[in-house]
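ERR on first pass: missing label on line 2. Operator R.T. fixed the label and resubmitted. Corrected input:
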Amino acid sequence: MPLSPHPLPDLRARLDELETAHLYRRRRVQDAPQQPQALINGRPMLSFCSNDYLGLANHPEVIAALQRGAARWGVGSGAAHLVSGHSAAHEALEETLAAFTGYPRALLFSTGYMANLGVIAALAGRGDRVCEDRLNHASLLDAALLARADLRRYPHADAPALARLLGDAATRLIATDGVFSMDGDLAPLPALTQIAHRAGAWLLIDDAHGLGVLGRGGRGSLDHFGLAPDASTILMGTLGKSFGTFGAFVAGSEDLIETLIQRARPYIYTTASPPALAEATCVSLGLVEREDWRRERLRALIARFRQGAAQLGLPLADSQTPIQPLLAGSAARALAWSQALEAQGILVSAIRPPTVPEGTARLRITFSAAHTEADIDRLLGALTRILADELSGGLFRPLERTGNAGHRL
Ligand SMILES: *Cc1c(COP(=O)(O)O)cnc(C)c1O
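pass 2 clean. output:
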């Protein structure tokens, strides 16, 4: 008699299926700090796949602040914020973030994923209607599922479709990315804020990719559209992207923040992030606000890339942000492009389903203020060679001959 009447699922067979469908994911091991000059398995590579848009992750002043913070506070926070882990460094960063975003208060979370889970599950319960953009970040979608809300997804950036959706039932909350993480385009925030006000619904804006990059002093997507913070609009921002550190925050009204402190489970039941990290983020936030040249430099690099790519006839998306996807279509083609770039010493990740919808696999190219014009030109040169190769039928052949195993990283 076998011990278990139910055999465990055959994990290997499922992994093999992913491999066959060009959907298997592998990690690259970095040997250098986050910067355009990556070192992968000892090999120097030029990287275009970081969210360190302003080049602050490896900034000497931010590193020094983290070191000073560790000397002052030690490493671990020791407990959750509601127990004994909430330090004066956390408190000061929350006040600074509130002032920066123009909201009455801000609350730190350990990660953006947790912040989104926390806000949505605190405001919407079982059966409450939550409307989300179809291309929202996974954490916003997961949050509505976790809350057991009645999740409805509207077509991407389609405000009239959202308005129609709100017409047929009371809606508790609308959630959208400010800048869409895989497309680089912006949510129609002026229309969304109006629709939310009219419906008496909360609007949650996840500005992971807008903060630091858009708006005056990097204040983000709302400021980009000239919209002021208000009591029904909630802002979620991450600190691991433009700010170059780690963690996240939610900004909103006094009552909203107090509600999250009482009810957001991913806030309550987790250890506070290290206080030294809060010290480092305070310093990086100062650089984000003061150093407009970083945003100007980014804009110039983006313009240079888009102009060059348009001349080459590359399948550019409608994005003015540092996220510049090149649509490949099939997962196999996106992977082949990424591998061909890698062969030329350039790192760009292929983004495949389920991260993006079926048939829209792409290269996700991202720029940083730490890139140079020569870096952009090198990328354009490599893409030119890949396109020429593809036209002559040469790009897919090595893949077919050797199978995927030969292309493992
Ligand atoms: C990165 C990201 C998150 C998650 O933030 P983490 O701090 O990395 O957990 C949430 N939303 C969007 C749109 C993101 O890009």
